[in-house]
Every structure is written in structure tokens, then in C-alpha cells.
Amino acid sequence: MSASEVVEVEGHIIDSLILAKVLDVIVDAGAEYRMFDVSIGRTNVDPSRARIEITAPDDDALAALVAQLQIHGANRVAQVDAVTEAAEVDGVLPEGFYATTNLPTQVRMGGHWVDVDNPEMDCALVVGPDGRVLTVPMHRVHAGDPVVVGRDGVRVQPLDRPRGANPFEFMSSEVSSEKPKEQLVARVAERIRAAKAGGGKVLAVCGPAVIHTGAGPDVADLVRAGVIDVLFAGNGFATHDIESNVLGTSLGVPLGDGLPPEGAHSNHLRVINEIRRRGSIAGAVADGYLTGGVMFECVQHGVPFVLGGSVRDDGPLPDVLTDVVEAADAMRAQLPGVTIALMLASTLHAIATGNVLPAGVETYCVDINQAVVTKLADRGSHQALGIVTDVGLFLSTLARHLVP
Amino acid sequence: MCPPEHFGVLYEINPWMHREVAVDLDRARDQWGELVATLVEAGAEVELLEPQPGLPDLVFTANAGTVNNGRYVASRFRHPHRQPEVDHDVAWFEAHGFEVVALPEGIGHEGAGDALPFRGVFLSGYRSRSDAGAHGPLSALLGAPVRPIELVDERLYHLDLTFCPLDDRRALVAPHAWDSYGRKVVEALVPEPFVLTDDEMLAFCANSVVVGRTAVMPACPPRIGRQLESWGFDVVVVAVDEFLKAGGGCRCLTLALDVAVPAAAPTRGARPPSSETGAAR
User: Fold this and answer.
1) Of A26, A113, A137, B10, which sits with the fewest C-beta atoms within 10 Å of its C-beta?
2) Which residues in chain A touch residue B185, judged by CB atoms under 8 angstroms apart?
3) Ordered DSSP codes for A331-343
4) Total domains, chain B
5) Is residue B3 one of the residues assigned to a domain?
6) Is A78 at the interface with chain B, CB within 8 A?
7) Which of A16, A47, A71 lies at the smallest CB-CB distance from B127?
8) B8 located within any domain
9) What angle separates helix A18-28 from helix B180-189, to the nearest 10 degrees?
10) Is residue B158 flagged as an active site residue?
11) ipTM score of the complex?
């Protein structure tokens, strides 16, 4: 288990080559260093100062190295373990709880830095009985859980922003409607292929516009081809997907000629009613009522989906989780292994997803509305690319790249 | 300087000290007297510190502390044997109008023996006796840059056994006693170094006192003498072998009180006062 410590050197450390020596000593010992909090004197009379975090392969190597560095005037900066306080009541955090970010986080316990299992923003850190540290949303804290309080012994590692001419080059949080879409989509496809080759999962978060714009069959193809591993959506997306496959309309509008026949405005209600009669979407697939579409492919290929409910939902479909807390927990349960998230013409579900994603997940936000894309890209995701375009065009191009 | 009334080798805290080697106190008194006379003849004024029974090394006043511009930074000795010296040193400096300051607790530094001014900078030896961590606080207290140099030869446990400023461009240097970083630092600082051989450095040639253009040395092989004379120095050799038994030479027996490294001295180009390298006033 690697061990780390922070040391500080101060004085005329540049002119005297002390800093260079200290860094050389660290590297020669097979350890790694990270310098932070460096201030260089303005003139040769002003002292300079540097704090250096050292990571050695194990405790013994670290202790030997720290002792060696002390000879050269680099002294340990006192580091303390994180402080925990037991939650008094279920669902209530101790006052002064540490509020998380979605960045990779470590907690110092017993002199060791322990990685937090599942970075998520706006949660608390709870130390498990096995010594693991978990991010836990407020409502899931139980009385007696040791919750990290204060900032001592907690550190957050900023993600390295990808630089230079590499596959990430095109990634940035910038959103522009004035970028060549065909190229962008091709690169997203490349990133998805690379993620899958590395064993990563792809999450798709879909809004109803995916179906309205006629991209349902493309998403179904992506599910069938094994490109999409997890689906998050709401009652609307699932309903219109089923409606379009059973009755050929989306919210009453025929996807063929686009002219609404009389009475078609109630099509989605009739479809919801029939699914409710069969108990679940899987039930409707089993008895042959539903024979195609995104939800059908998910059921057929065992792709997990989470349908989160909202106040204005019709029905809703029996699969919709109407308890939002339960829905968020169900989404969290599907996140391990996800390395790419596609936010497809969805505002509310995409924001909900952004809230539970670790910062390191590559996120692509596709929407026709620049404001939505900007909002999503700005919500703390560090590797997000906004693509302002029609989601139907985006998905048909993506499917062309990824579906054999 | 401190008369050697109570000098002797009563303990062993460096490789030169052996308690079985007796000091000839009469001879030590004579050698010390000869050193004082030589320094005075070269133009120095000598102030005296009263010797104390039980403190044989008080005679090595170079380790009493570090002086700059009328301010005195008291030493903090590594070995308990020498720690009681500090009270006597501090009392002297207080009585003589110096501003007396101290390093933070827990940081050791053995004074001018490990801190030599050159071209607006103090070079400070560390590892054997002084702590590397002292250089930051020492710099703040002295009001001048301090560059630590690691001493890697236990026989040369203080910087003043390895480095001797001669004037504002020249110095006797013993790079073998420093680590590679220290060598680079000195190389960058000293325009005209004279590199001592191992034998010369172990003969304490660097432990010399320069007053004006007179170099008072414990030993001076012809090779060094010729070079110093060509640079315009008069060389006077004073036998101090009784003191070498305790690991100290001419320089160790003196402490310069007139050091004046300016507060914001540029590192290069400026000419520091020539008295900076003087032994005493």
C-alpha cells in the first residue's frame, strides 16, 4: 500500500539547489512527488517556499525517505486524520459534515489516504466498518454512521485536463453550434469504441425528443448492438417509444407522414393503459404486445433501465419509479463501470444524472437548445462536450458509425 | 577570542578528538598568544571572552554565534557538551551592545563556524553540526541570503574547515567536503576559487583568518603560498597544533565581529566591504 506525506522546504532553496536536491532525493528513493503551494522569492534576498507531497511504495520506504529529507531541511507538515462524528438520526447528517464534490477524493485514516469508492457531488462521506469510505446522500445516512466532519484529512484531486494532440483534444466544456457536426460525431464514436475496448460502460440518458425526431430506431439499434449498456429516462421517453412501435405515432404524431389523425392525441394514454394491464414493460414484451423499439431491445438484451417519475406524468408506466429518492438511488446503483454518458435531448434527467456522476465520466450533451447544453456542461462535469444539434441527426450519424 | 585557560580534550565530538592525547596547556597558551599578536599586527583589534572552567571548547569562538551588522544570532549546539557555552556567549554580546537574537527552538546552528559571508551571501554548512532547516530562519535573522551547503566528510564537520573567503572574488575551497549540489553553489558564487587538495584541507589550510591582505594560516604548503602571494596576500603561518588536537585551527579560534553583509545585496557584481572577511576588530 503506497504511503504519502507532505514536507515543506523554506529559505533560499532555489539558489542553494536545496529544492533540486530534495526532489532528486525523492526520485532516487523510488518515490513520486507533487509540488504545491510554491512561492518563489521575488529577489535573491526573499525566501522561497515549497510544499511537496511525497508518495512512496510503502510505509517503511516513506519513513526512510522523510528521515533523509529532514537532513536537507525538508520537514514534515503535520497531517491529521479525518475526524468523524456519528449521525444521530436516520437521514440527518452531523452539523459541519464534509460536503463532497464529484472529483476523486481521498480521506486520511490511521495515517493512510483511502480512496473514496464512489465520488458524487453534494453527499457526505461515511466510513464503513471495513474501513472503506463511501459517499452517501443525506437521506441514506443511518443513525450511528461515522460521518466525516470538517475539512481535515480530506483531499480532492483535480482531474488533469487533457492537453495536446491526443484523442481528447476536441474535448472541452465549450459549447458551439458552429462546429462541424459530422466530425464531432465521428470522434464521439471513436471515444465510445475506445471506452468499450477498455471495458467501460456507456450510459444513455434520453428525452422524449429522441422519439419525436425519429431517432428511436437508431437508439434501439445501439442497444441491440451492445453499444448502450445502461438507459436512464422518464415516463415520456418510454411511453412514446412504445407508442411509436405499437401505434406508429409519437404523442399522436405519425412518424411516417407527420400528419396527426383524429383522436391520436390519446394514443399515448391507451398505450400506457395496455402496459399497466400487463404489469410491466417486460410483461408487455413477454405476451407479444410490444415487439420493437428501445424499451423492447432493453428487455430483450437485459440492458438495465431506470425510469424516473415526475409530477406531470400520465399513467405512469408501471416501471416508472415515482419516489424520486428511490429513483435517484436506482440510478446510482447502475453507475459503477460507466465511463461515457450520452445526454440526449434531456434536460431534467440529464441534470439528475449529472448530479450523481463522478467527475471523471466523459459526458456528451446533445440538444438543439444551446442554453440546455451550456447548463448541462457547466454542472460540474469536468470532461463534458456540448454538441448543439438536432438529436435525431446526431443519433442517426452515431448509429451509422457504431452499428455494424 | 577566548584565552585557552581551561582548554583541553575532555570529550570526543569529532574525529580529531582523542581524550588520551594530552594537551600541553603552556604550549597552547603560547600558540594562542602568538595568534593574537599576529592578528593585531595585521591590523585587527581583539576583544576577549572570559574563559570558563569546564568549557574547554569556549576557546573556539567561531562557534559562539553568527554576527551581521551589529546583530548576533546565538548558536544552538548539537552536542550537549558545548551547549552551556551559549549563556556565556550571549552575556558577552549583550554586554557589548549587540542586538541578541535566537533561532527558533529545536533548530541547531553552530555560528560562524558554519556560516561564512561571501559576496553578499552567507554560505552555511549543514549536516554534521548545523541543521539545513536553520538556513531560512538564520537568513531572516541576519537580514541576508543564506545558502546551505551539505558537508559530506565527517572530518570536516564545520564549513570553516572547507571554505575560506580571501577577498570579494577569491576563496580557498575544498569541494571534496561538499556534496555535488554544494559544489555547484560555490562554483556559481566564487569567481576565482583556489581548490585545496585532500592533504591541504586535512591540514586545516582553509581554517585561516584573513585581515586585510594578511592571511593567517595554521599551515601553508608552498603551492598555496605562491598563489596567495601572487594575489597580493602576505601569508603568516601560526602553529596551532595544540588546538588541532580538538579539531580547530586559526579560524575556529576567532569570531569576526565586524561582518556587514548589506540587507539587500545583489548576489553578484557588488563589492562587499572588505572588512567582511576580517577576523576581529
Assistant:
1) B10
2) 15-17
3) HHHT-TTEEEEEE
4) 1
5) no
6) no
7) A71
8) no
9) 160
10) yes
11) 0.78
